[in-house]
Amino acid sequence: MADAMEWNEPYLESCCRCALHRLKLAGPAGRPLILRDAPCLKRLCAEGLASIDQDGRVRMTAQGAARHEVEISGMRRRRGVQNRRRSAG
To answer: What superkingdom heads the lineage (predicted)?
Structure first.
């Protein structure tokens, strides 16, 4: 039997995991709080996974990047999912 993974991080709802992934995709540009995922972005800020900068945009923190690596990128690797681009033509 495989060792059980110990998890001591607060649970993220799937909508908040998606918002965290969108923050990762947005990169340094961040995301504005006027979008539909604003409640999730605010929750991520409350948990220290993101922060609201002076320009009003939400950006991922180092803690958020680490959580994304474990929870989202790690899940993709465990499932064997890789980003694949379709070739044109």
So the answer is: Bacteria
